[in-house]
Design goal:
With 229 residues, the chain is an alpha+beta fold. The chain is built from five helices and ten strands. The strands form three sheets. It has a five-stranded antiparallel sheet with strand order 9-8-7-6-10, with no helix packed on it. Strands 1-2-3 form a three-stranded parallel sheet. 23% of the residues are buried.
């Protein structure tokens, strides 16, 4: 699949403790929003699959690409693949009412791209580290990528290990690794503020792909770091 550091989860992610799914009353992350605005202007063809385009900020990608083509014949517009109607059906270049899997298979065939439904993804890291869930990563105590090459810090994600969230609305909140689910994602139990002077534990997920990114240093910031208390 697509490496996590190349994906803009503009509206948050179920698998990033430092940027969980954004509620309508909350704000988007500044750096991700700036990236969205950049690609809104730079995109010449926007392919949208499986979205109802119901008014989220990311919808601007579809609308801007479609209107640039409709008004100035610049780029190629937008392609929408979805079973239900969307607000942009009348301005997109191509509209396909079908299941995503069916369209993706036909597109792969047309582009002569071979694919297979292989085994479940496993991070490309030393097997011993993966078995122990303890990794050496080039990040500091705040989860920022170290400028000094060769400087490593331990990221302990074994059951019961203490962790701290590095950003977002839960920045600085601490908890522990509760378990690893069947897909290899880490289930965290983190103490977060609920109301003034009141905290409660909440369950957060850390996607398994973060492990490979952490070990290889391909992302500027880690969602969590290990702590001793």
């Amino acid at each position: 699949g697509m490496p996590g550091h190349l994906v803009n989860d503009i509206h948050g992610s179920w698998f990033d403790p430092s940027y969980p799914v954004v509620q309508f009353s909350e704000s988007l992350r500044d750096d991700l929003f700036e990236d969205l605005l950049h690609w809104e202007k730079a995109t010449d063809l926007c392919l949208t699959m499986g979205s109802s385009l119901c008014g989220m900020n990311a919808d601007r990608m579809v609308e801007s690409s479609a209107r640039r083509y409709a008004k100035r014949k610049k780029g190629y517009g937008s392609v929408i693949v979805n079973l239900q109607a969307t607000p942009y059906d009348n301005v997109c270049s191509i509209r396909i009412f079908a299941k995503i899997d069916d369209v993706a298979k036909l597109l792969a065939k047309e582009l002569r791209i071979s694919y297979s439904l292989g085994p479940m993804y496993v991070p490309d890291v030393p097997k011993t580290d993966l078995a122990n869930h303890v990794f050496m990563v080039p990040y500091d105590e705040h989860g920022r990528l170290c400028k000094e090459k060769g400087k490593l810090r331990q990221l302990d994600l074994s059951e019961g290990a203490k962790v701290m969230v590095t950003g977002g609305k839960f920045e600085g909140c601490k908890g522990e690794v509760h378990a690893v689910n069947p897909q290899g994602n880490y289930r965290l139990r983190v103490l977060v503020p609920v109301k003034k002077d009141f905290e409660a534990y909440t369950a957060l997920l850390l996607g398994t792909w973060w492990i490979e990114a952490a070990v290889k240093g391909t992302t500027p910031i880690l969602p969590v770091v290990s702590v001793t208390d």
